[in-house]
Each structure stands twice: as structure tokens, then as C-alpha cells.
Amino acid sequence: MNFVILGPTALRVDGQSIPLGAAKQRGMLALLLYHAGEPVRVDTIVEHLWNRQDRAARRASLYSMISRTRAALGRAGLGETLLRTPGTGAYRLDIDPGLVDFHRFQLLVVQGRDAAQRHRYDAAVEALGNAMRLWRDEPLADLRTVRADDLRRHMNTALLDAQKLLAVNRLRLGQHHRALAEIEPLMRANDLDETLAQLWVTALSGAGREQEARSFLRNFRRHFRQHLRAEPAVELPRSVRAKDRVGAPAAQVEESGCTAPPQELPKDIGDFVGHEQLLAEIGTLTAPESATTNVVAISGMPGVGKTTLAVHWAYRQRHRFPDGNLYLNAHAYGPTAAVDPEDALGRFLSALDVPPDRMPTGLEQRRSRYNQLLADRRMLILLDDVRDANQARPLIPTAAGCVTLITSRTRLRGLSVRDGIPSITVQPLPETDGLTLLLRTIGDARARAEPDAVGALARLSAGLPLALRIIGEHIAERPRAALVDLAGELTSQLFSTGGEDDEAASLQTVFAWSYRALAPDIARLFRLLGLQPGPTLGPESAAALLGTDAVHAEQQLNSLARMYLINHDTARRYRLHDLLRRFAADRAAEEDSEDTRTAALRRLLDWSVLSGANALTMLVPDREAVPDLPAPVGVTPRTFATDGEAMAWCESERENLSAASLWAARHGFDRHAWQLPQVLLETLQRRGHLEEALPLLETAYAAAERDGSKIAQVGTLNNLGVMYLALHDYPNAVATLDKALQLARRFGDVEKETMCLHNLASVHLSSGDAALAARLHGSVLAACRAAGNAMGEASARHKLGDDLRHMGQYSDATTHYTAALDIRERMGSLRGQGTVHAALAALHLETGELVRALAHGERALDFHSQARDDPGLCDALITVADIRRRLGSMDGAIHDADRATSLSADLADSRRRCHALTALADALAAAGDHTRARATCAEALTILNEINDPRLRPVGDRLRAICRAAVPTGP
Asked: Considering the domain boundaries, does residue 462 fall inside one?
């Protein structure tokens, strides 16, 4: 039996197709199959089946389709699988996701990726090839709405990612011709995709078609620059570059897709002009053979090209920095607060692969770790838009092999006087260089016809590259206009500002000149961009500002980028120069009413909080939904197909969501101000930005008080307490959660009171007081039973089982675990059943009942795999590995512990990694592989020393015992 959603919805049983009804009914089934095993709200189903204007009267139709679909499934032997989830207004298709082609595709891709990580490239190609063969046609073909298009886009993105991974592994196996055949149609459909371009160049080179690779790369770079105004990060393989340099083949072919050092620099521009003397000066100051310094400060006025100069020098000198580069926009003058040095060091440490849960706390601790990691590396660090010496100084590494460039609008005298750091000043371009840059945009033929006018335009730019680019694009957009007329127009506007002729006045005038030439709808977008609180934006957030669709917004953003009125931050994200941002905001204040501006910002805040809530639902499906969400009026929130996709969006929008939350609190949008931190918390926890959450939550609590929302006040304090728990600050966690608890009692909110009590109990368990935790969890259990809250009862019983197990009361713990399992079985919670089976497996392992332990452990693996719950699966694998070792099944134990170790790395969870490595080391030692066992112990002990968590002392004792036992004896 198998279901098809990668094409028209279909069900095949023993080779026979089962009729599934009309297209709309098949579309509904496709949506439930996409979310197989998970509840889907009625509102969500309606949104995916009918466009906005058709939804109001469609619920009755939906219920009829549900009945007909149940009948069709019943005829296929799948009765009682389409269930309504009690109390949630949702339906769940309770089938094995493995019966659905798209979920099988995802599983095969995971298998392919795992095989590749173990260097089994043939197995990776086999799994990925099987995954490709499941795609028959357009996915979700029976769903035809805007929301369905979002899902389709996510599925097609997953396909493209898998196709890229297949190509990488074919190249690793030397299958260059096969890879070329598969990449070629992908390149035609995605002609600006840098990853595909790199794979294509590598495949051509590996197939011996090096000249074609060079030709393709030249054309791709030209095409990329024309459309994105940036330099692509695509290169010939090292072997080909070596031939180009010395005329002989390199000894080793560069492997595509291997782990690379951090490469964080902004893209270089393809038409850099001038400043050769400054570039040479930086090179001389930092030259390894005669360096007088390894730090250079670069200052200059806004728009003069400081960042462009630093980035261009860095790209020229990439060969000097084989260990990569780090980049920080310090936001000295941007819309958000200047970056705190401690936070900046956290970002750098993350780029250097320090997991969030091993991130040092405090400025000095982070600085020490930063210098330790860079001690033997040769890297470039670019600190851009720095406010002052105090912001820059902690970020300058002590390593002699690293070079640091610092850009600032002010001359950083503190660095020069106190630290002896040389400073160079970027001056406006001389007229000859300005002419060169202008000519590259408008063309030689047109310039030769009116040389005096070109010279006048170059002078009017005051030598500022930003102004020159805007002038050049303004002229290029008007091929029939006489240059002398355009120069006269700009001159008259410059004089109309009051006769000022300094650089700032010229820049503002150039902005106005180009702005007035914009089409009205594009000008409106430009004005609104000046209002948005965050540092960057994408097409979807721009669409929210405009109240339009993302495709239309992206076209307008690209129009502004072509005019140099906005810059590409990455391929589909954009950033305004802060001078242009201020200019745009001024225009908005003059030309748009306050109501218009407020409505645009409200749409942006609505889109942000609704998209964030969707991401949170994907990341933590069991968590209570964010309350009092706005209606999606005039906006289309982002939806997400996978945890990874949701997490990537949250990380890319983190600064924007944080800035929007603080802005909302200052400007009277109190509800958004307390909702946005709720959707941010998961990202901040997973990525180790816990300190950033504290001020956000404090601001959110004040906003919740002003909003008069009782549920928000209690919820925000509860979240603040959970943050303190995550930071292992148990006294503050207890105090904050107790305050939330008292507030919930005062408001008479029994549900929130129970939630706070549950988290308070978890704090006491984490801090080692299992007896107090058990008493509190017992109170939670009584409250949930009295309220008829089955989900809460299951959670309380499970936690009470944990408390009792820690106290050695195994019989009582088993009773509570079994009761929790019964409830979760009735509710159909795959994830919940998996966690209880894992807990029972651990309990029976501790009591020595190994056969029972293994039975529960294997059930836990099944449930966590079905639920796609990687953290739960990792924990279960660790337990099962220990059980198999105790049973004497060493191969199975090593296999499971290896899988757990790999998963813990993907999760960036150091505590889980310690437990996984411990299980692996024990299994290796028992199997007689003493060398690998000792190496595994050493890795785990290193992590333990970095974490320094007293609760992990038993793990350290176990590791040291394994090390002692793994010393081979003599003959």
C-alpha cells in the first residue's frame, strides 16, 4: 500500500488504484498526507483548499469531504485512521508516514546524508537516486491555492537540495559525466544558484572539459553581477587553478562538498575602481614578512566606500587566510542598537563551531575562548561600521597569524593612541577614477558624444562611489535623454538646497534626483523601507509593508537594487545604507499620512508574529499556541515544511524580530511587543543567545501589563523563568516562576497556574531536589485530573516518573510511566509514546531487566523515527546502545551509539553528545577496540571540561573508568 502526493493524489493497494473522489477531496487528503500523523487544524485545511474569497461558507463542504474520505479509506482497509483530535478543532490521518511517497523521499534523503557523512558515497548515491525516482509530477497537484503554493515551493526546495546532494556524491565517486547530465536541467531552471554553478564547474573540470569550465565561470560571473550587483562565490577547483598558475596538474583534486572554514565576508563587487594606494598601504602594513601590525583601522565619511575597500582588499588577499574569515556589522549607525562585544564574540564563536550549550558566558570568558581558537589559525576578521574603540577592542584577536580590518565613520583615536593601531582615511575618489566608474555604467559611446556633461556629472557626485553608482544607473535607465540635460537637472537641484556643495549635500541631492524618477509604486516601497525596524528584509516582509504578494515585492526590490537605492545582503535579502534609510524615512514622513505609515508597520508586525508563530508550531508542536494572534489581513505569513526550514527562517530573521519587538514596545504596539519574544525564544535557546532573551522578555512583560493581558503577563514571566533555568540560574528561575505562579492564582487562571507549577518542579529536579519536584508534580497531576486535561496529566505523570526514578523508587515510577503511556496511546501522540518507552527502557536498564528494557527501547526508536523527533531519537539510541552492550551485542551497540553521536552533532547538543560518546566508548572497549575507545573518551572528557556541569560528574567518572579499562595489557 502506498500513497502518492508527488503528483495527483493517489492510493495504490496491491497495484490497484483506489478511487479517492473529486479533485478538492483529493486535495484535502493530500494535505493530511503531507502532515501524516500530525493534527491539522480545520482553519488550515480550509485555507489550503479555498482561496480567501471562498472560505466563509466552506466548512460544511469540508465536513462532507471528511465523511467521503473516511469511506474511501475504509474501502482500502484503513478504517478509523482519519481522526478528529479532541478539543483542538483538528483532524489527524493516523497512518505510518512511510506509506506516503514524499515522506519516503525525505527518509531516503536522510539516509543518503548519513551515508555521506560516513564517507559511504556509493550508498549515498543509491539512497538519493531512489529518492529522486519517487517524484512523478508536480507535488500536491490537486491543491490550487496560494497556501498550497507555499507548500509546493517548500517541497520543490527539498527536491533541489537533494539533487545537489546527489551531485556532490557523484562527484566524490568520480561520476562526472553522470553528474553533468543531472545538473544541466537544474542549471537552466536556477541560473543564479551559486551551489549548482560550483557543482557544474567541478563536474566539467573533472570530466576533462576545463576550457568549458573556465568559459562557463566567466559567463556566470557576468550574469550574476548584472542581476544581483554582487560577486559570486564560485571558483575553479584547486587542481585547475594550480594548472593555470604553474602549468602542471596539482597533486590532489579538491573534493566538492567537504567541510569548509567560515567564509562570512560580504560579496565583492565586480567593478571596483581606484584607491590602489590605500590597498597597497594595507598590504604593506600587514604583510607577513615585514608586518608592522596585524590590525588596520579604516575611517571616512558615509558613502565613501570604506566597507567596499576593506572587502575588496580581503578578496585580493584570500590566499593569505586559508582558515577563512569572520565578518561583523557592528551597527554603529544602523536602525538597531550597536552590537554588544559579548554578543559579537558569541557570533564569532558560533561561526567557529562552538555549540550553543558550550558557549562561554561573560565577555572575558568568550574573549579567552576566541583567542584560544584563533591561536594557530590564519584568518581575516572584518569589523564593519564600528562605533568606538571600546566596541572594537575585545574583538581583535591576539593571534599573530590573523589580520583585523576595522571600518568606522570616526577616526578611532583610542585604538591609535592606546593600542598603536595605524589608521588610514578613505577620501572621495579623484575625478579620473570617478569618470572611470561612471563610464562603466553608461557606456563609452554615449560618454564620448558628450564628454563635458559626463565630467560635470562626475564632479557633482563629489567623488562618492555610492553617488556615482546611483547617477550612472539613473542615466543608463534613460538612454534617449541628453547627458547635458541630465547634468543640468542635477545641478539645479543641488543649488536649490541652499548653495551647499559639500559631500553630504551632494549625496542627499543625488538620492532625491534618483528617487523622483521612480515609478510611484516603487517609490512607495522605498519610503516604507525607511520605516521598518530591522537591519535587513526579504521579499515577504516587503510584501507585508506594501500589502501585496512576495513576487511583486521582489520585482520592486530588484528595481531598487538596480538603481543602487538598496543593496543585496544575500541572494534574496536586502539592506539599506543607513543614509538611504534616513532619506527614505524623511520622504515617508513628508509624503505619507500617519495612518498610511502606521498601517504598513502594523502589517509588517502582523506578518512577523504570524510567521514566527507558524515556525514555532513546526519547531515545538506540543507547545501551547501564541495567544491573541492578529488576523492575517493584507499579509501572507510564511509557512514551513520542516523543522530545519523553520529554524533557518528564525535565524535569518532573528535580528529583525528582536528589533521589531523593541520598536513595537516603544510605539504603542504592546500586543506585538509581548507576542514577538514568544516566537523568538526557541531560536534564542537553540542557538545559545539566552542572554539576549532576558531584556526582550522584561520589555515584553511591561508591554503585557500595559496591554492588560493577564495570559500574557503570566506567560511572559513563565518564559523568563524558563530562560533562567536554561542558564542554570536556579535562584532567579525559582523567584520568577513563583511570581508567575502567584499572578496566575490572583487572576484565577488554573491552567497557567498548573503550567508554572510544572516548570517550577522542573527547576527543582534540575537543581537536584527530586523529592520537592515530585511533590510539586503531584500537585500538577491532581490539577490536570480535576480539569480533565489529559495531555497535562500525561506530561505530569511522565515527569513524576522521572522524579521517582531519580529517587530510586522504581515501582512507583513504572506505575506513572505506564499511566502516561496509556493516555498518550489513546491520544495518538507518537512523540509522547516514544518518550515514555525511552524512559521505561532507561528504568529497566537501571534495574537490570535487560530484555524488557530492550523491548521498550526498540519501541521508542520506532516512535521517534515516525515522529521525526531527532532529540528523542538520540536519547533512545544512547539507552538502547547501553542495553545491547549489557546483552553482549557489541556490533549493535556500536552502531546505535555511532548514530546517536552523529545526531547529537546535528543537534549541536553537547550534553547529549557526551552521553552518546560515553555509550560509544563503553561499547568499543567491550568489543576490544581500545584505541578508538580511548580517543572517544578523550573527546567526551574535553567537552565535559568545557561544560563544567556538576550534574554530569557521574558521566565523567564513567568515562575515566572506561579509559582505565581500555588500557591493553601485555602478553
From this structure: yes
Domain housing 453: 431-516
> Mean pLDDT for the chain?
85
* Residue 420 and residue 297 share a domain: yes
The mean pLDDT of 798-821, rounded to a whole number, is 94
* Domain end marker among 487, 516, 545: 516
Confidence of residue 713 (pLDDT cuts 50, 70, 90): very high
Does any domain span residue 318? Answer: yes
Share of the chain above pLDDT 70, in %: 90
Query: With 80 as the cut, is the pLDDT of residue 619 above it?
Result: no
Residue showing cell 479532541:
86
Name the residue among 551, 542, 553 with its Cα closest to residue 150: 551
pLDDT in tens, 874-906: 999 999 999 999 999 999 999 999 999 888 876
Output 767-774 pairs: Cβ under 8 A, ≥24 positions apart: 767/730, 768/951, 770/803, 770/804, 770/806, 770/807, 771/803, 771/807, 773/799, 773/803, 774/800, 774/803, 774/804, 774/807
Total domain count, the chain: 3
Handedness of CA 147, 151, 156, 158 (dihedral sign): positive
Return the CATH number at 943: 1.25.40.10
Q: Are residues 489 and 404 part of one domain?
A: no
Question: Euclidean distance between the first and final Cα of the chain, in Å?
Answer: 59
* Nearest residue to 274 via CA among 446, 426, 408: 426
CB environment 65-93: b (16+ within 10 A), e (fewer): bbeebbebbeebebeebbeebeeeebbbb
Domain of residue 372, CATH code: 3.40.50.300
Residues, the chain, total? 971
